[in-house]
Write a structure and sequence with these properties.
The protein has twelve helices and 22 strands. The chain is of the alpha/beta class.
Length: 419
């Protein structure tokens, strides 16, 4: 949480963090400015004081909206600094940063820079800052490391934003399911009420239209993959493919709110019309492990221990896992979950190399998403079930947006086929 950032910075030996860039698609900036829009800004976070927003005058109303302590960047006019630096833009911008740091109470010390910026520009600023302002020591990676550590736990406002996106997600998922239910099958192909074959691309367009109406966006796309494609976890699906009965469809949906920037992550696996016994048995196994891991997610347990347990459970059921077969393409091939917030994948992590302090704790948000994948054979399939959960004040994992778990979506056959 932001309230923990000062201590995190002190532990890291930092006197200040400098966040740079626009507000869009820039989680470090978004963390402080919320839904306020900036084409370019800076946030200075002194270790011993509150964050300060440095804003361009054209965006002064947006700056006021944040409620942050703030300074107009024109108080440090770049033209004057360019004259002082004989026209060298990188040195002038570095001098501007040093003057801003001094103005907010950090006249010297160890600093670190982060934010979404073109690497070359930031590199030039750092080189110039080291040259013209040796009173500052610029440390690599420390800023983003500290912010990621603060962001690992969510405050009440953040939890509310994620929960709100969850409601948007399950509402759209319900609309997709209801649309499929309204269709019928002809020769195992899904046909719309208007008589046209239903394609994956049509479903994705429907999803994107509803997201727009809900004030959300889909920067990472949607996975709606069927059959053999569903057996590759991040295959997004073939837009031209017509939906077929009896094949698994992995629907992995992870949009974000267009204003706050918070994501939600959710997956269901469906079969249209019917499912073979093999698919139903595999689905039941995934669901059983999904429920078990949520029940085991208690404060203090490392996320990577949940991953190890998941691998052991799938192995006991006769499946390969990445614990015993690193790089396997079949069986259980990924991790059990990941943190979620302003990034769709953030701490806490559950891979075997995850930090020891990536543990389940109160107010932490993460996904639980076991799956099975078999890309070869007569009936290739993928099955994944995913919910986003948080740990409540009682230490219990709570699903943030509930939705039913049903493999088969019933669909009527056409009148001709019924004959």
């Amino acid at each position: 949480m932001k309230s923990e950032l000062s201590e995190i910075m002190k532990d890291a030996g930092l006197d200040a963090i400098v966040v740079m860039g626009a507000s869009g698609s820039n989680p470090p900036m978004k963390y402080f400015v919320g839904d306020a829009f900036f084409t370019s800004a800076m946030v200075i976070i002194p270790a011993n004081d509150e964050p300060v927003l440095i804003y361009p005058p054209m965006e002064r109303d947006n700056a006021a909206k944040t409620g942050m302590k703030r300074i107009n960047i024109d108080e440090f006019p770049l033209k004057k600094l360019l004259d002082e630096m004989d026209g060298d833009l990188s040195q002038a911008e570095a001098l501007q940063i040093s003057k801003i740091l001094t103005a907010v109470g950090v006249p010297a010390g160890k600093i670190s820079i982060c934010g979404m910026n073109e690497f070359g520009n930031v590199f030039n600023k750092v080189v110039s800052l080291n040259k013209i302002a040796p009173e500052y020591e610029v440390l690599p990676k420390k800023a983003i490391s500290c912010l990621n550590k603060a962001r690992i736990s969510k405050d009440k406002k953040e939890l509310a934003e994620i929960r709100r996106m969850g409601k948007v997600v399950v509402s759209i998922v319900a609309d997709v399911e209801n649309y499929i239910r309204s269709c019928h099958l002809v020769d195992e192909r899904l046909i719309s009420p208007s008589g046209n074959p239903v394609t994956i691309g049509e479903i994705k367009r429907m999803i994107n239209h509803e997201l727009l109406d809900a004030g959300a966006e889909n920067p990472e796309g949607t996975i709606f993959a069927m059959g053999k494609d569903a057996a590759v976890p991040h295959n997004s699906g073939n837009n031209a493919e017509v939906l077929l009965a009896g094949k698994t469809i992995v629907f992995d949906f992870f949009p974000r709110d267009a204003g706050s920037g918070y994501f939600y992550d959710f997956t269901r696996t469906w079969c249209i019309g019917h499912a073979s016994r093999k698919l139903q048995e595999a689905y039941n196994q995934v669901k059983e492990i999904h429920d078990e891991i949520i029940a085991l997610a208690k404060p203090g347990i490392p996320m990577k221990e949940l991953q190890s347990i998941t691998c052991d459970r799938f192995k006991a059921l006769g499946h390969k896992t990445i614990k015993d077969n690193p790089g396997t393409f079949e069986g259980y091939v990924h991790t059990i979950g990941h943190g979620l917030g302003l990034d769709v994948h953030e701490r806490p992590s559950s891979g075997f190399s995850a930090p020891d302090d990536d543990t389940v704790e109160i107010n932490r948000v993460f996904t639980v998403e076991p799956g099975l994948y078999y890309p070869e054979g007569d009936e290739p399939f993928g099955i994944r079930i995913e919910d986003t959960v948080y740990i409540d004040e009682h230490g219990k994992a709570q699903i943030m947006a509930e939705y039913p778990y049903e493999l088969v979506i019933p669909v009527q056959k056409s009148a001709e086929e019924k004959k």
